[in-house]
Design goal:
The protein is of the alpha+beta class. It is built from eight helices and eight strands. The N terminus is likely disordered.
């Protein structure tokens, strides 16, 4: 890619410390039925995720949202959506991703049925996508526990102004909230500033836990941390978050996270 072709934060120079921060794409695929969701999940496991890795996205996360884990959403049945996390080490990797996949003959052959699905019977309805830049204090996706019963907690913090959104990110990085998370047992997967997407301005992060009991204990520890109680009352960070989306996700078979 020509220099300057994709002018995004963190992509300016190899000497820039931000260069080590990943670009994170989070996709939400929508399906017409559970059967379509399963076919696409199999496609991800058998063809797409290995190809995504070859194209520079790793580790790839694939997650499902289930009714039992999210009672506050008042779902009548498990969601037919799939959440796919694609981390990229550079803007070049991100920009070239689709072209690399199009030239990957093994991928095109293994995923033919989905890639070339007819208009009359599409593999998915549509997908939404958001692009994030990883935090200074959490520049790379980290793998949480790999236990079979693990859960992933996806949280979106919306702010009413860009200034307040930047202040909340500062609260994590320089204010010490990331450190409080860590010592409370809140195992981070990623923390990202959303550059492009919906519900802007916002930051999005994911935590991983072996089970619900560990998750509850970690959050209780966090809420009772003396440093958090002090930090959360500082005027500097007042009204930094105006809305919170909280989702509990489970890894699909294709997931590397």
């Amino acid at each position: 890619m020509a220099a300057g072709a994709l002018a995004l934060p963190g992509a300016s120079s190899a000497r820039d410390k931000k260069q080590s921060k990943q670009f994170l794409e989070l996709r939400i695929y929508h399906f017409a039925s559970r059967e379509k969701q399963q076919v696409f999940a199999d496609f991800l496991q058998n063809a797409a995720v290995p190809a995504f890795n070859r194209a520079g996205a790793r580790p790839v996360g694939v997650f499902k949202l289930q009714t039992a884990d999210n009672p506050e959403l008042k779902l009548t049945s498990d969601s037919t959506d799939l959440y796919v996390l694609l981390p990229h080490s550079s803007a070049d990797s991100l920009a070239a991703f689709s072209a690399v996949l199009a030239d990957d003959k093994a991928f095109q052959q293994a995923g033919d049925g989905v890639i070339h699905a007819p208009k009359s019977d599409p593999a998915f309805m549509r997908y939404e996508s958001s692009l994030m830049l990883a935090f200074d204090g959490f520049p790379q996706v980290k793998l949480p526990t790999q236990t079979a019963g693990r859960l992933l907690q996806l949280r979106i913090y919306e702010s009413h102004t860009n200034e307040r959104a930047r202040k909340k990110i500062q609260m994590f990085n320089q204010g010490g909230e990331l450190a409080i998370f860590s010592r409370s047992g809140m195992t981070g997967v990623f923390f990202g500033q959303t550059l492009i997407g919906s519900k802007l301005p916002n930051l999005t992060y994911m935590l991983g836990f072996p089970n619900e009991e560990t998750q509850k204990k970690a959050w209780d520890t966090f809420r009772n941390d003396p440093e958090w109680k002090r930090l959360s009352k500082e005027d500097e960070y007042k009204d930094a978050v105006s809305n919170v989306t909280n989702l509990i996700l489970r890894p699909a078979a294709a997931s590397q996270i």
